[in-house]
């Protein structure tokens, strides 16, 4: 079956509400829902996090990142970490764990690793860009960056049921394939990704920003959350293995940053933020 037909089948499944998550992702989603229960006490939250090794590791790692812990005093336990970073960040990290659980046993381990590293870089850069350039909420920007590749994680998780959906040649040539029009590809990306984001109860404003990123929309002057994600995506040193039509606007996006700040100022901001980005990326990829 050709790639276009495979994507159409998957998009139809999603449209019918037939989202199929790995068992590990389902468990992480149940944890996420529990953490979002307003009646869940802080002690219950801490016990839940401690019972999930991946989330525990990320919570402590983020608490020790330069962004949250400028004192340099190491945090070594979940309770102290939750107190430092706050429940909002914990809930965002729980969503990131769901995304990462899509990357269970796969044939395409290199693609999965590159995709997750790219997401972590975008998340870290978005947090810095939001705070220093576009003046969006930094935590929301980091959260959006962590999950903006959600549809590709889902497709990778489903590949074993649809052999040939993603292989080495396809991964680098999505926009050059004659059997799949760019518009159709983007429509499938948005349909699948939006359904998954809704299943994860991601706020509507964040979903809209991610869609703007997928479509390559850039406001002038660039100040929105979608702009923040576009900037972060283009500046990320690790690129996504999957190229969307919006990624072809990279030069335009970088050029338009100049409507908000000159190139030298941007370079200085990125240089000053290097430690923050490095620290956050290490925590998110751990």
Write the layout of secondary structure elements.
Blueprint (H helix, E strand, L loop, with lengths): L2 H13 L7 H13 L6 H9 L2 H11 L14 H8 L1 H15 L7 H26 L3 H10 L2 H9 L9 H4 L10 H18 L4 H12 L9 H11 L14 H7 L6 H10 L1 H12 L1
Summarize the structure in words.
The structure is a single chain. By secondary structure, this protein is mainly alpha-helical. It folds into two domains: 188 residues, Hypothetical protein af1432 (Orthogonal Bundle); 79 residues, no CATH class. Helices cover 66% and strands 0% of the residues. About 6% of the residues have low confidence.
Overall body shape: globular
Helix content: 55-70%
Largest sheet: none
Helical/strand content category: mainly alpha
Tags for this entry?
single chain; 286 residues; mainly alpha; Hypothetical protein af1432; 2 domains; 16 helices; globular
Task: Offer a quick outline of the entry.
By secondary structure, this protein is mainly alpha-helical. It contains 16 helices and no strands. About 6% of the residues have low confidence.
